[in-house]
Fold this sequence. Notes:
By secondary structure, this protein is mostly helical. The protein has 2 domains: 88 residues, Cytochrome c-like domain (Cytochrome Bc1 Complex, Chain D, domain 2); 100 residues, Cytochrome c-like domain (Cytochrome Bc1 Complex, Chain D, domain 2). Helices cover 45% and strands 0% of the residues. The protein contains 11 helices and no strands. The longest helix is centred in the first third of the chain and has 26 residues. The chain starts with a helix and ends in a 20-residue tail after the last helix.
Amino acid sequence: MRLAPQFRWSYSCALLAAALVAPSFVGGCNTSPGKPAADSAAVAPGDITDFPTLYSNNCAACHGPNGQGGPAIALADPVYLSIVDDSALRKVIAAGVPHTAMPAFAQSSGGMLTEKQVDVLAATIRANWAKPGALAGAAPPPYATTSPGDAARGAQTYKTFCAACHGPEGHGSPKASDIADTSFLALVSDQYLRTLVIVGRPELSAPDWRSDVPGHPLSDQEITDVVAWLTAQRVKNPGQPYPVAENASHH
């Protein structure tokens, strides 16, 4: 298209003005109010690998801030970390403990965490809180039981090592909790009970297997037997302390 001479100058000026305005217009869009900054994009839940965030969101409610214990055992207890191996620790995080209050966290077991996130939790719990030499040369009983337990022997073991704090029948005292409570026993596994007997609850001043009776640490078999005595007290319908009258159906 050919322009008349009187329009050529105006048309050239218009093109020049547009060229000068365009960069500032684009730059203005990059700093427009409400536009997110380049580093403000939300991280997808499955991409979070920061241990403090993972622990706070998934573990702290039960195991306490910084692993110091709460409704569940302290994960920052070096005695606990000295008896549980990497495989067992990871398995509990990933798959949980069926029929107890410990849920599964791995997506492969119905949870929300990726395998990588489970790895971060398991590895960093040990890296942050294990203390080599914490047992001062003592050989702890194995994490898992190695033989069948005997409830009758366990009753005697309980009287010797546990009754002074937990009461003669395990139903508590001013010193310690009701360890034979049927609702509690329904919520925990046999392994959890064994772990409690071995590592204690240091955050609650409950001693480990070495210190219930000075100079006489609990043996592997004694621990197995006292756990057998406790588990024998589980009932079919926990949390129902009041017996149902035989003639209730007639009213």
